[in-house]
């Protein structure tokens, strides 16, 4: 079943998450129509290879053309229209930057895998529960309702101001008419009645002015309360969700809704500001004793300007945190002299601001690093698919400055991966007579000078964003706080779901918990220190817990990814637990687990039964990335042989735990069918014996211990077949034993 087919079977709450990251950058229609083709391409590799990305983009356009031909024959007008629009988008937007579409599609596929992994988990973790709190959802609805009500109130007040203006014009006309009469005419009874009417009209004007000012005051108060409470909380919640998403958590949404709220409030405030300007205009034409406008208007205008300043300052946000395109799953880790991207947005989307706001990017002011590349750009509404007012820096590079001695501060592999920095951004908005200076900063970033520092740098990013809501605590690691183990385990599961497409289940997480804290029954409230996570070596080992885990992630990603995604790698299980699981199983049942003693190693253990009925277990030396680069792991499982004393080689692996036939589990992952034994052809020197490498272990009858590295020997099945024609199994065993003893 394709990944897209699995996505379509998800519950509605997960489908809503999928819907959030499909937009005009990569329309869902294309994902649906080209599901199998899209999943069969290596978009992640193309994201780092422009030539490959260009080929994939051209092939994608060809696929769209094929679909367009098909739907044209079916006369599906709506789909024809959408596909033409998509084709135009692909050709126009990505032709000059094909790696961008590769990054987008790669991210979408990865998010799908993360959501599928989350859906397969029986229980949500504490962090994810907090992000999906029903109280938060209710507040979001309340904010949108209140913003809409405020907008309506401001528009109604516009009508009141217009009525006041009409009333004053009528008063002004009648008053000037009386003033133009001769003095004798002014003493007439009719004129006296008119003067009384004017006084009554002036009273109405006074009442209406007070009423309009009162309504304006209420609108301002409503905006003030909304900004001070619910809207601020909404923005802080979004920023927290962004932090969690950066370390592998659920995709954060809701920014378009926030933009709508900020924009409507800004429009309402500018509308109120125009109403106050209109009142000032009316004041210059008519004033009187007790006039409320000169008393109340300055205070109201000052409050409106204050709210606009705060609204704009809060609306200037980092939409996408700094990230190297070469490591999309490791944001906020930046390598010197390597380009990174970062995107900013102004949540107040006004057409008057398009291309009028120039943003400058700088790095923190300790003068140790500088930013190279284009660091000043204008915000616009054209580059974003949703038309947001944003700017994306794509060519920034951090450069480490030389010290007075001519060297660099922490050059080379010893650069401190706990030292935090921030990328700062500043701009100025000039609109309707207001000048507002805006500043914002990225979440803390870690600078590295060598990719070997990336794992520890990423550990720092995880720990920071797990432990604090503070977006700018650059001294965090001077005294890093402990983390709740239950939350840390949830984040560790996210590392697997976001990076290798499948999260960890409760049994796997329990094993990690035991590795971190020992044999303790409950760990929900256990506090784990930063040192124990990333700095102290595991008991009896020469590496830390995080280094061990990161090596496993790398192993999965590069060598056993399909097997991991299918759920066939139990992985995190102790030697003691694996024997408990296997002891009552059919002989030949095996499971796959990660090595606890070797970095980035995977091994398999199978159960066997001796002639006396006793159960025995065999584990092979762990396979590391060096061996797996030469021979796919699925092929190893298929071809693996053991040589028992006085016996011929045979494959002991029959059933994947608990009882899945081996070929049923791994058959689709075999790289090729095993070659049949054959002899050299009659062509003499032109013919060769076809061969494949197979791993062979020699096991003595009374041996139940894991075997040494030298017990593994590559042997061609065809070579073994030729040997069997001339030698007995005992002679072959003797020859193998001699070879092993000499190596």
Kindly describe this structure:
The protein folds into four domains: 118 residues, Transcription Factor, Stat-4, CATH 1.10.532.10; 180 residues, Glutathione S-transferase Yfyf (Class Pi), Chain A, domain 2 (Up-down Bundle), CATH 1.20.1050.20; 112 residues, STAT transcription factor, DNA-binding domain (Immunoglobulin-like); 164 residues, SHC Adaptor Protein. The relative contact order is 0.06. Helices cover 51% and strands 14% of the residues. The chain is α+β, with helices and mostly antiparallel strands and 743 residues long. The chain starts with a helix and ends with a helix. The chain has a five-stranded mixed β-sheet.
Key words describing this protein structure:
nucleus, 4 domains, disordered C terminus, Immunoglobulin-like, elongated, five-stranded mixed beta sheet, coiled coil, DNA-binding, alpha+beta, 743 residues, Transcription Factor, Stat-4
**Major sheet summary line:** 5 strands, mixed
Low-pLDDT segments, ≥5 res: 411-415, 675-685, 702-720, 734-743
If you compute it from the alpha carbons, what radius of gyration comes out, rounded to the nearest whole angstrom? 35 Å
Q: What share of the residues lie within helices? A: 40-55%
Family: Belongs to the transcription factor STAT family.
Subcellular location: Cytoplasm; Nucleus
Organism: Sylvia atricapilla
Pfam families: SH2, STAT_alpha, STAT_bind, STAT_int, STAT_linker
